[in-house]
Structures are given as C-alpha cells and as structure tokens.
C-alpha cells in the first residue's frame, strides 16, 4: 500500500500571505524613511509629498523616540563606604545575572530614585570637576541633607551623583594606556533613608 501524497499547497493563500508581507514591509519602510529624513538636517533630497505631509503629526518625537543623544551627560551614583572610599552604586546594566537578566527591575527603579533625589536638590549647585570624579567627591562639601522617599531605597548615607559625558568613540584608542577622564559635574548629598 502506498502512502497518501501530502495535500497540495493552497497557492492562493500563500500568494495572499506573501503580498500582505510585502505590503507591510513597504509600508513600514516608507514610515521609517520619512521619519529618518525628517530628523536629518536640511539637505537637497526631497521625498514625494514631503511638503504636504508633516511627519511631526504622525511621529511627534521623530527618530528621538528610538534613540538617545550619545553626547548627553550620564548620571552615575556613588556611595561612600564605611572605609571612607567612594564606590559606584549603579545597579545597571539591567541584563546581568545579579538582576536576573532583566527580571529584577530594581535597576530601573534606581533611575527614578535618583530623579526624586535630584528634584529635592534642584536648588543645589553642581560643582565642576576636571579630575577623576571620586577625587572631586572627596573634596566637595555636602550640598544638602535630604530624605529618600523611595519605597525601596538603594542610595542612603553619603551619596555622590556624577554627571559625565561618555568618552567619544573616536578617542577610544588615543589614551595610550592611560584612562581618559571626561570633565564632569558632581553633586554630594547626605541622604537619610
């Protein structure tokens, strides 16, 4: 006895599925192309219907929704330990074994916690620092004593917040063995939990 042959593929269903996939690909490619072009500085390239189509109505944030400015200052929390040394207190990046590969959201909550502390200390002026941030934190005076209102605080005691830009990619090999220290601004707080 010979086995029954498999049923023939329904060509119209496969063709419709292929046309749908092609239509979705072209549609989303067009949206991405217009969003990218709107984010670029003025250039001689004009897209069809660009003068009548305002991308800010469709994508109000433009390409900034997907990206972050690589030149903006990064906030790095530091804690002063019992030995008097300043150590980084950041719980990021989120995708680490200590954060259960992103399941534990405490690292995300720390950003909100820093935001609450900065809002409470918004009147305090940040100090300029041209050295390694730990050296500047050691010399800085306490800007303000405040209370951490976060439900699960991770920043308690002597807290330093450093605002520093990342080392530009083009400079990555220019240090010749010495670490590059970017200028920063620091804020030292006495936080009660």
Description:
It is a single chain. The chain has 193 residues and is α+β, with helices and mostly antiparallel strands. It has two domains: 15-57, no CATH class; 73-191, no CATH class. The protein has four helices and six strands; from the N terminus they run H-H-E-E-H-E-H-E-E-E. The chain has helices spanning 11-39, 55-58, 106-120, 133-139; strands at residues 74-80, 86-88, 127-129, 144-147, 157-164, 184-192. Strands 1, 2, 3, 4, 5 and 6 form a six-stranded mixed beta sheet that branches. The longest helix is centred in the N-terminal third of the chain and has 29 residues, at 11-39. The protein starts with 10 loop residues before the first helix and ends with a strand. The model has no long low-confidence stretch (mean pLDDT 83).
Question: How big a fraction of the residues is strand?
Answer: 15-25%
Class by helix and strand content?
alpha+beta
What order do the helices and strands follow?
A: HHEEHEHEEE
CA-atom Rg in angstroms: 26 Å
Quaternary assembly: single chain
* Overall mean pLDDT: 83
Total individual domains: 2
Count of alpha/pi helices: 4
> What composes the largest sheet?
6 strands, mixed
Helicity level: 25-40%
Report how far the terminal alpha carbons are from each other: 80 Å
What are the low-pLDDT stretches, counting only 5+ consecutive residues below 50? none
User: Overall 3D geometry?
Assistant: elongated
Q: Please provide the count of β strands.
A: 6
Jot down its keywords:
SdpA family antimicrobial peptide system protein; 4 helices; Sporulation_SdpA; alpha+beta; membrane; transmembrane; single chain; transmembrane helix
